[in-house]
Specification:
- The structure is a single chain.
- The chain is of the alpha/beta class and about 325 residues long.
- The protein folds into two domains: about 35-130 and about 255-320, Bordetella uptake gene, domain 1 (D-Maltodextrin-Binding Protein, domain 2, 3-Layer(aba) Sandwich); about 130-225, 3-Layer(aba) Sandwich (D-Maltodextrin-Binding Protein, domain 2), CATH 3.40.190.10.
- The chain is about 45% helix and about 20% strand.
- Strands 1, 2, 3, 4, 5, 6, 7, 8, 9 and 10 form a ten-stranded mixed beta sheet that branches.
- The longest helix has 29 residues, at about 1-30.
- It is globular and about 65 Å long.
- The model is unreliable at about 1-15 and about 20-25 (pLDDT under 50).
Length: about 325
């Protein structure tokens, strides 16, 4: 009798599971049935916001629903990330995640979320190489020259970044570690302030986005020495990388991707991944990205998860090495 009851229970459980799966599959196949929201952790008009709006417009065209960009600024993007991490897991709230998000876990002792536990990866969208630029008064024509000069004038040269713990700050500190030099860090409020300070000669060098660096380089106000990514920047194919210039293994860059709350169905994530791949790799999207110094790059959910895990680990290690304390 007991055996029969167990078999009946298993049978009923199987029927319920199948019915639930059928309803769930139907829901995923009909997705989306209402507007989608992309949350951005930075202000309107910035690189993250512009990227989100470009992707959102194309997603809307493909999915047949409006895609709204919501700017939740502050705390280095963590307010926006928390907003998405605590949203319903229904696929209607997305986060445009950036390289900065993978730095925050090592900078903030008590984040209200866990980036890997509370959010699920969808796909990488684009990468953004940076360029190391110097003021023309600095007597260096190559990275080798700059390293030699920095060793002779230890602690006298300076580099700027857009804030303590920012991507540019970590780029500078990694440069110091790998080149075995001490170039003094000067934090500014943003990338534009850093660039202007370098062009004015208030600081000797900085790490900047390709397009903004190009504008100043063409006018002779800055001298680009190397790209920070392992591969050369598409807009500056003749410019060597730091890796090629002697700092073997140097590979730092900005990046954008899409996350959703943990618990969103695999079918919906797969659907979003498929559509993101399609829209990001169109010729017009590639052209618009390239004009801003971005390079389209998509991947699988698993690959993006591995990318985020690797970035978090590398940032934590670097922040520990330079002695930067979590807030």
């Amino acid at each position: 009798m007991g055996s029969s009851r167990r078999e009946i229970s298993r049978l009923l459980a199987g029927i319920v599971a199948c019915a639930s799966l059928s309803v769930f599959d139907s829901f995923a196949q009909n997705y989306p049935v209402k507007p989608i929201r992309i949350v951005v952790g930075f202000s309107a008009g910035g690189g993250t916001d512009i990227t989100a709006r470009r992707v959102g417009q194309k997603l809307s065209e493909q999915l047949g629903q409006p895609v709204i960009v919501e700017n939740r600024t502050g705390a280095g993007g963590t307010i926006a990330t928390e907003r998405v991490a605590t949203s319903p897991a229904d696929g209607y709230t997305l986060l445009l995640v950036t390289a900065a998000d993978a730095i925050q876990p090592a900078l903030r002792a008590k984040l209200p979320y866990d980036l890997e536990r509370d959010l699920a990866p969808v796909s990488l969208v684009a990468v953004a190489p940076f360029v190391l630029v110097i003021h023309p008064s600095v007597p260096a024509r190559s990275i080798k020259d700059l390293v030699s000069l920095a060793r002779l004038q230890r602690g006298k040269l300076s580099y700027g970044s857009f804030g303590v713990g920012s991507s540019a700050h970590l780029m500078g500190e990694l440069f110091n570690l790998m080149a075995k030099v001490h170039i003094v860090h000067v934090p500014y409020k943003g990338g534009s302030e850093t660039l202007i300070a370098t062009a004015a000669g208030h600081i000797d060098m900085s790490f900047n986005a390709v397009t903004t660096a190009l504008t100043f380089a063409k006018s002779g106000k800055l001298r680009p020495l190397a790209a920070t990514s392992a591969k050369r920047a598409l807009l500056l194919p003749s410019l060597p990388t730091l890796d090629e210039s002697g700092l073997r293994g140097y590979d730092r860059y900005g990046w954008y991707g899409v996350l959703v709350p943990a618990g969103v169905s695999k079918d919906i994530i797969a659907r979003l991944n498929e559509v993101i791949h399609k829209v990001v790799n169109t010729d017009d999207m590639k052209d618009s990205f390239n004009r801003d110094g971005l390079e389209p790059q998509t991947n699988t959910q698993e690959q993006f998860a591995a990318h985020i895990h690797r970035e978090i680990a590398q940032n934590a290690k670097l922040i520990k090495l330079i002695g930067l304390k979590a807030e």
